[in-house]
Design a protein that fits this description.
By secondary structure, the chain is mainly alpha-helical. Helices cover 94% and strands 0% of the residues.
Length: 50
Protein backbone atom coordinates (compact mmCIF):
# COMPACT_ATOMS: atom_id res chain seq x y z
CA UNK A 1 0.00 0.00 0.00
CA UNK A 2 2.79 2.45 0.88
CA UNK A 3 4.60 1.62 -2.36
CA UNK A 4 1.44 2.34 -4.32
CA UNK A 5 1.00 5.70 -2.60
CA UNK A 6 4.63 6.60 -3.26
CA UNK A 7 4.20 5.63 -6.90
CA UNK A 8 1.02 7.68 -7.19
CA UNK A 9 2.74 10.66 -5.57
CA UNK A 10 5.71 10.42 -7.95
CA UNK A 11 3.36 10.25 -10.94
CA UNK A 12 1.39 13.25 -9.71
CA UNK A 13 4.59 15.25 -9.20
CA UNK A 14 5.74 14.34 -12.71
CA UNK A 15 2.41 15.44 -14.18
CA UNK A 16 2.49 18.67 -12.21
CA UNK A 17 6.01 19.40 -13.45
CA UNK A 18 4.91 18.87 -17.05
CA UNK A 19 1.87 21.09 -16.53
CA UNK A 20 4.03 23.82 -15.01
CA UNK A 21 6.36 23.72 -18.02
CA UNK A 22 3.41 23.96 -20.41
CA UNK A 23 1.87 26.84 -18.48
CA UNK A 24 5.17 28.75 -18.37
CA UNK A 25 5.51 28.36 -22.14
CA UNK A 26 1.95 29.55 -22.64
CA UNK A 27 2.49 32.53 -20.34
CA UNK A 28 5.64 33.48 -22.21
CA UNK A 29 3.85 33.31 -25.56
CA UNK A 30 0.95 35.39 -24.24
CA UNK A 31 3.36 37.92 -22.74
CA UNK A 32 5.06 38.31 -26.12
CA UNK A 33 1.68 38.70 -27.82
CA UNK A 34 0.62 41.41 -25.38
CA UNK A 35 3.89 43.26 -26.03
CA UNK A 36 3.31 43.04 -29.76
CA UNK A 37 -0.26 44.29 -29.41
CA UNK A 38 0.90 47.20 -27.27
CA UNK A 39 3.46 48.15 -29.92
CA UNK A 40 0.80 47.96 -32.62
CA UNK A 41 -1.55 50.07 -30.51
CA UNK A 42 1.11 52.73 -29.96
CA UNK A 43 1.93 52.77 -33.68
CA UNK A 44 -1.72 53.15 -34.67
CA UNK A 45 -2.39 55.86 -32.11
CA UNK A 46 0.64 57.81 -33.26
CA UNK A 47 -0.27 57.57 -36.94
CA UNK A 48 -3.99 58.23 -36.67
CA UNK A 49 -3.83 61.02 -34.12
CA UNK A 50 -1.82 63.33 -36.36
Amino acid sequence: RVKRLESDQAELERRLDLREIAMRRQYSALDQLVGSLQSTSAFLLQNFSS
